Amino acid sequence: MAEPKVPVSEYGSMAGTRLQKGAVWRKVKWPVYHILVGALALLMLYPIIWMFFSSFKESRTIFTTATTLLPADWVWSNYVSGWKGIGGYSFGHYMWNSLVIVVLSTLGVVISSALIAFGFARLNFAGRNFWFGVMMVTLMLPHDVVLVPQYIIFTKLGWLNTINPIVIPQFFGAPFFIFLMVQFIRTIPKELDEAATIDGCGKFRLFIQIIMPLIKASLATAAIFSFYWRWEDLLGPVLYLNSPDKYTVSMGLKMFLDSESASNWGGMFAMSMVSLLPVILVFFLFQKHIVEGISSSGIKG
Amino acid sequence: MKMRKTVALATMVAILLLITACGNSGGGNASGGAQDGKTLRIAWWGSDARHEYTQKVIDLYKKQNPGVNIDIEYASFDDYWKKLAPQAAANQLPDIMQMDISYISQYAKNGQLEDLKPYIGSKIKLEDVSENVVSTGLIGGTQYGIPTGVNVLGFQYNPELLKKAGINEIPADWTWDDYKKMAMQAKEKGIYFDESMTADIFFNYFLRTKGHTLYNAEGTALGYEDDALFSEFFGTLSQMIKEGAAPSQETLSQNKGILEESTVVKGTGIGTWQWSNQFVALQKVADRPMALAPMLGPDMEKGIYMQPSMYWSIASSSQSKDEAAKFIDFWVNNEEANKLIKGERGVPISSKIKESVTPDLTEAEKQVFDFVSEMEPKASPMSPPPPVGSAEVIATLADYVEQINFGQTTPEEAAPKFRADANAILSNNQP
Amino acid sequence: MRNHSLKANLTGYAFISPFIIGFLAFTLIPMFISLYLSFTSYNLFSPPRWVGLDNFEKMFTGDPKYWNSVKVTLYYVFIGVPLRLTFALFVAMILNTGSKMIGTYRTIYYLPSIIGGSVAVSIMWRNIFSEQGIVNGLLMALGAAPVQWFGDPGAALSMLITLSVWQFGSSMLIFLAGLKNISPEMYEAASVDGAHPVRKFFSITLPLLSPIILFNLIMQTISAFMTFVPAYIISKGEGGPMDGTMLYSLYLFRQAFMFNNMGYASAMAWVMLIFIGVLTLILFKTSKMWVFYESEGGR
């Protein structure tokens, strides 16, 4: 059991304060805490755990045995049948398509957002506050309002059934990431730029050589979030991708769900798990970045 | 100084290049139709099984017609129309499209579909197809689609459970009264008789038996004016639910679209009302012997019709209409192809093909073919395809029926409201 | 001396130019098109036809389904967001201890938010609440009657709200970071004064956290108003039963892409935009009354 480095914050254990002085309480405090918090954590994860085990149940028995967690017989066939995908395209094909979209979008959005953020955070120019205000407003703009016209514009551009409508807008920065990075850059002491400028460093080199390395954390955060959002994006593919050859993971899953005839529940559960795998993997690898990124976005907002 | 700006500029250029580069990688050979006349785009909706065998049919076609390339596009029913509409607006429709009866009018009226008359006989051979069937593809006198196969409505049930409910068999000429009696009998034994009926399809059937139709011939309004028809039909259905002869609306909503959760599959209900081509999938999931019974009378003959399960249509913007027509001909007349299709898109329209695939059918598929053959001579001509705006009318009707079944309104109250709403939608959609 | 030299302006604009171009091309121009379309009848097939205020008139006076979607969305937002934030704050406070396990717990609690927007999770949710799903299994084990979660409009909406509360993670992280910024001395000082934990919560934690609460509140409210994927997947795009899960975005989507009523959908979008704008403004304006800002420069 983990030993606390500092005493439990008092406001964190409101229930316990009255007993705090008792020696018994001091002994059981941490185990009780961990049991309670751990139980809550388990409850949070239960749906995911349930889906995981269900994906090893036989399709037929998923519904009849929903209340028992462990499958009676472990079957792999769901993964085999699910991976086969739908209509001749394997699930791997959808994963690849998603990956292409994710990588291009992420690259685009991170680079452009960083450039823009640097402009807002460090450069002085006429109308900066105005544009920053505009950006903050777009951050809060409901996407619905541009949904229909964007759809019409992309249609007229002949971008239907291409990944352009999903990927290209990402190359013009995303307000959320810009905002995040501006917050980060603002925490870097200005003296650093001044020193660099005196050394004859131009703005662009300042950005590349001084600022970029210092905001790596927020770049990583933006990249991870971009990865998630593009990976899970459903609306873009639903609206813009027509041929199954180009379908993404979300579309692949949706096709399992839309069935006129008998559906392969086991396969769907199995592929749901597979589709979550990269997300969960990235999450556990980079969770520090994610937590920092999200945390700092709210501070001094 | 200068250098800095150059670097900045270079980055911009690099980014722009990246944008266009990825544009190309995504776009490239994408839409744009078939410019070289040898690449066809074909689109349909459906489920996994349909995608799979359709692909095989296409592969077969490609094998027999070297040099022809076919790009496929498919989606679920809902998504399909979402994707097709903007393509129509951009004049980028696929060369060959699967069309649904409730949408074909809209595409035909907007000049998106090719008149297929000139191709019939030369490119598309329909000698073995009955005139009644071919004519279901007529919209306002123009042949905008060729049926992929035909369906007929019926009651698909579990004979064993029927016996358990104390009913020996369903008579071929059963009526609404018989139905009510049987349903009550089943209910006494704690068995559901059916799962209610899909509002628009069966209301249309009911109206037809009474000499009306859901939409008028011009598609400008509903085809009936007597609200008593509405109250009678939906009154009966909601009564069934209230009595417990059909599952509650809660249960119906809960399990909508999940075959595994239907009462027939779970063995708690005797049967369900649906199109004949849905029988095979139902039987497969239920995994027990199933049977088909005709629709309810009186005047069943006036009500039933051979419905094209769906059509094949050719886009008027297509650059390869001849090639597209050839593919449709292949679909209709090729024996090998139809051995893959096996009536999944409705019973084949060519009598010759129907005969030649029969030996290869499974028991359930044979049942469907037999049922359709049995009904064919009794069926009346189809009403004109639903007009533009019908998708919204159907959704509106479904809403009212849900409200009735939930007890939030009565059939008598809903009837005039539905008629007003539907007529407003239909007149809104008039050009 | 002028503040901004030409060179400074050029450099500045060079850096933010992607944003400006993107803003014009993908936001501002589409917004104008959308505004124009909201006064037309447009079905993609034939050119837009000017109908004046017809769309708005229909929306406000002739479309009960519209009002239903407004009602459902307001329920979703005004029940879901406070629940989510309360839960997030609660968990953040529990986790704001020195235990070494906190990193793990934090990760676990945050995980649902990461995967929450995905189709996979919506599919999972659908099945958890299905007739024979685990939730009903649990209810029956407790001796309660099973609920038809998709069969009752209220139940279906509460299921959606549960899904949104389950994804409290990102708000929790932001709260957690905020809590870490409150210096322990403040609590110590309060303890010396004999303050009760509840008192400390209301007189120290809440005021100091209020800017963060405001931020979370605004961001979560806006994103709640725009919720689409869960309702779309869980109701299979129909918003049922009885339009119980017909969130505003879903109804808009159906009008636009199912029935091709692009004009009507655009009008709906503009009404939503204005509503959210006004709401945000109200939150900001009233925030002066309840948000406590630390003096500048504290970091």
From TrEMBL, chain C:
One of its GO terms (biological process) is transmembrane transport. It is a multi-pass membrane protein. Keywords: Cell membrane, Membrane, Transmembrane, Transmembrane helix, Transport. GO terms for cellular component: plasma membrane. The chain crosses the membrane at residues 12-39, 74-95, 107-125, 155-179, 208-234, 262-284. Belongs to the binding-protein-dependent transport system permease family. This is ABC transporter permease. It comes from Paenibacillus bovis. The lineage of its organism: Bacteria, Bacillati, Bacillota, Bacilli, Bacillales.
